[in-house]
Amino acid sequence: MSDTEKPKVAFLGPEASYTHQATLDTFSPDTHTLVPQTTLEDVFAAVQDGSVHRGVVPFENSTNGSVVFTLDLFADLHSKNNDILVCGEVYVSVSHCLLGLDPSSTQDYSKITKLYSHPQAWGQCKTFLQQHLKHAERFDVSSTSRAAQVVAESKDPGAAAISSKVAGTLFKLSLLSEGINDVSGNQTRFLILRRKDSPDVSTAPSAPSAQSTIGQSNDEENYKTLLLFTLPHTPSNPNPGALAQCLSVFGRHKLNLTSINTRPSGVANWEYIFFIEFKGRKDEGDGGAVNAAFKELDGVCEWYRWLGSWENRLPAPSTQKL
Ligand SMILES: O=C(O)C(=O)C[C@]1(C(=O)O)C=C[C@@H](O)C=C1
Q1: From ligand 1's centre to the CA of 94, what distance in Å?
Q2: Fold match between 97-178 and 202-322?
Q3: Interface predicted TM-score of the whole assembly (ipTM), two decimals
Q4: Bridge partner residues of 255 (DSSP)
Q5: Domain map of the chain by residue range?
Q6: Half-sphere exposure of 184 (CA within 13 A, CB side)
Q7: Element holding 90 (H helix, E strand)
Q8: I need a labelling partner for 207 at 20 to 30 A (CA). Which of 78, 93, 110, 162 fits?
Q9: Which domain of life is it from (predicted)?
C-alpha cells in the first residue's frame, strides 16, 4: 500500500507522546499514516473535517482523573465537532521520567529551575515534585513529548521535562530520573474518534473481539457507551430531582454506569454538562436497552447527545491491582 493510499490517523504529537504510544498500539504504521497534531483541538478538527480516518486522544488517567481538555472538546460549546463519535479505547501504562540536558542534575535537582510538561502530568507526579522540585517554575505545554522537544531546543541546562523514556531517546536528553509518578500502576485511557459517516468496524455485531472480557459474552459487559446531557433547570428555575430522574433511567434499564463527569455548560454560571459512561451499546436499529434508555432520557433531560459505543478494552480486574 502506498503512503497516499493508507488511511490517516491523527494523534496528539509530536512523536513519543503517550498518545503516540496509544496510536501505535492500535494502528500499524504499515497500514496507516500516523499524523502528529499540535493540540487536541487539531485532532478533533482533523476527524471532523474528514482529513483523517481516525483520531486518538487521552481521556482519563488512573491517578489524576479526567482529561478536562478532551471533555470540553466533546462538550463542543461552539458546535465545531458535531459529527465526532468514539469508536474505541486503549489503555497505556504511563511511567514518567525527568529528562534534561545536564546529566549531572541526576544527583542535584537544585540546578533545575524550569520544568515543562503537559498539565495532566503534574498531577501524576505530585510526591516527586513536592520532594525534589518545589523550587522549579512550571510551564504547561501541549503534550509530554512537546515538553521534551522544548527542553532539547532550549539548550538550557536548567530546563527539564516530565515525559516518556522514548521521548528522552528521540530528543537526545539525559534520563535524570525514572518512574517518578506517584502510583506505579499509572495508566491513561485513550479514546479513538471517527466521523459518524465513517464505518465503524469495532462495534459491528460480527466484529471479532480479541480482548473481550473473558467469560462475559453479553453486550452489556463487552461494550461501553458515552453520552452527554443537560438538565431542564437553571438557578432561577430550579427543578429538584432532575439529575436523579435522568440517572435513574439507566438503573431501570439495567445499564451499569461506570463514570460521571461534569463540565461548565458555557451558557450560565453554575450550570453543567453531564457526561455519563455505562456498559452496553447502542443498537443500529430501534431495539435494545440502550435505545430504550435514550428514549426515556429524552423525556426527562433538556437535551442529550450520544457520543459513541465501543468495545470495552479494560483488562481483567486481576491485572488492575496497583
Ligand atoms: O500524550 C501525551 O504525552 C500527553 O501529553 C497527554 C497526556 C494526557 O493528557 O493525559 C497523556 C498521558 C499522560 O497521562 C499525560 C499526558
Answers
A1: 9
A2: no
A3: 0.95
A4: none
A5: 1-94+185-200, 97-178, 202-322
A6: 2
A7: strand 84-93
A8: 93
A9: Eukaryota
> How remote is the CA of residue 121 from the centroid of ligand 1, in Å?
7
Each residue's pLDDT, cut to its tens digit, for the chain (322 residues) gives 777 789 999 999 999 999 999 999 999 999 999 999 999 999 999 999 999 999 999 999 999 999 999 999 999 999 999 999 999 999 999 999 999 998 887 878 999 999 999 999 999 999 999 999 999 999 999 999 999 999 999 999 999 999 999 999 999 999 999 999 999 999 999 999 999 999 887 544 433 343 333 333 466 779 999 999 999 876 667 778 899 999 999 999 999 999 999 999 988 888 899 999 999 999 877 788 999 999 999 999 999 999 999 999 987 765 555 5
Candidate CATH numbers 3.30.300.130, 3.30.70.20, 3.40.720.10, 3.40.190.10; the one for domain 97-178 = 3.40.190.10
Task: For ligand 1, atom 5, name the residue with the nearest CA.
Answer: 143
Ligand 1: which of 18, 44, 139 to mutate, most ligand atoms within 8 Å of CB?
Answer: 18
Superfamily of domain 202-322: ACT domain (3.30.70.260)
